[in-house]
Amino acid sequence: MTDSALMELAVLGLLLAVIVIIISLICHRRNERLFGRTPPGPWGLPLLGYLPFLDRKAPHKSLQTLAKRFGGIYQLSMGSVRTVVLSDAAMVREFLRYEQLTARAPLYVTHGIMKGYGIVGAAGAIWKYQRRQLIEWLKALGMTRKQCETRAQLEQRIARGVNECVQSYETEAQEAGGVLDPLPSLQHSLGNVINDLVFGETYRRNDPNWLYLQQLQEEGVKLIGVSAVVNFLPWLRHLAANKRSIRFLLDGKAKTHAIYDRIIHRCEKQLEVDLQQRQQKQLPPKEPHSILEHFLNERQPYSELYCDDQLRHLLADLFGAGVDTALATLRWFLLYLAREPRCQQRLQAELQQLSETPSLAELETSVYLRACLSEVQRIRSVVPLGIPHGVERDVTIGDYCLRSGSMVLILQWAIHMNPDVWPQPEQFRPERFLNADGDYAAPAQFIPFQTGKRMCPGDELARMMLTLFAGRILRRFHIQLPSDQPAIDLDGECGITLTPAHYKLRFSKLKPREGKAKVEKEKEEQEEKEKDERQVLEEAAKVKDE
Ligand code: HEM
Asked: Residue whose CA is closest, atom 23 of ligand 1?
């Protein structure tokens, strides 16, 4: 081919490229006019999208960096999955009201395991029906803010677990010279509170099935993280390491379901016996005592809404959603309170005013306890990337068009660590949740349970558990970091939840009402100090505004 022919070909190619770019720009503009803009965002590599640039160990931090650059809404590709990231609380509230956003994200691992059953991974009719039922059942079991008999019964059931945990810490501290790993006792007793409510059964500490379920939970949550690449590039499942993880999860599911089937069978038999006995005595049927009993009582034969798989996955979801999140929160709580003697001192000053085994109503009078728990939920969002949603149908919200099949991430981490809302976000300051009158007040940007149509249905149960566990443990013990503790890791491990690395604490039993006067004096001094700090902060904010 001659030089001039080559030149002509090159010019033609260039012309074609320019025409393609112009046509796609016109189409893009037309689509934007018709459907709204797509959110801005970074470019990625073909096929892989932005995945290679995410920090696998801390994806929440990589995504936070992008939020600083692109703002409260942006879009990127994770492999083939178009992902919209929200890091502005007002936008999250607005978007999560839309029906079109109630689906779940098309993630290979979670879909592969849950298959659309249960509640957390379900969508459409099954999800809607199951969610409505679940909320009714949780209320019937006492999960309500109204003071009533069922709430008192629920409190007693939680308190049983709390007392067992406090007792174990006391024994362990005596045996181990005060220094212990708080996780095993907490995991056992908190897990049993959920077992009792969900299955109506609890385990002994050394029960082999229970030890297996706990280990599976601890490992499993790390493997089903949103950022796991297999979620977006399913062909990577053939790599040896991914094969192992997927096999571990699928084996775990099969074994868990086998354990659940035996519990379900026992419960069915027991319900039959109870019913017969009550019929003979002409008594009305007994009120269900667990989620499992509620489900079996209302079960309709041949309905997919009540099939075996739906039941097994619902039980697994409730165990996972209830234990992983609350356990991680309490582990961060103990770690931060041990790190922050000033906060612990102030909290204990309030708790010392209460009885030795304070009730929920008593603990709820401690404004500082509530503030400490909220600050823990803020500083270490236990679901840093939220639980992702999926876009069911194309939808235009405000200026933006979200395409069907996209994943929507609620970047709780960035929302809760935004320095414009929470100055010096890495500092643990429960006072952020107290107003000028010293009352509890949570800013609107605090959304640990997310918002909208899929908001956590267990939020009140979670609050009751967190308050009772945290309040009674800190009422009984002074906790400290042991002097020989290696450097503390506050980054944690990020799977679907963000959990702290293992740590040990020194537990010293507080003598009943000992030093009350001293504690009161310290509290007064503390309040003075905080007033000064508040003034300094307010003045700093004024200067910033100016
Ligand atoms: C500190 C404790 C907890 C935190 C921080 C938490 C947080 C969350 C979050 C962020 C979601 C996602 C909401 C969404 O998709 O928009 C969620 C969903 C859920 N949570 Fe919780 N949760 C906690 C405790 C509990 C407890 C104790 C239960 C037990 C009943 C529970 C049951 C659920 C369920 C079933 C869902 C799925 C709801 C749905 O998909 O419709 N959670 N939770």
From this structure: 325
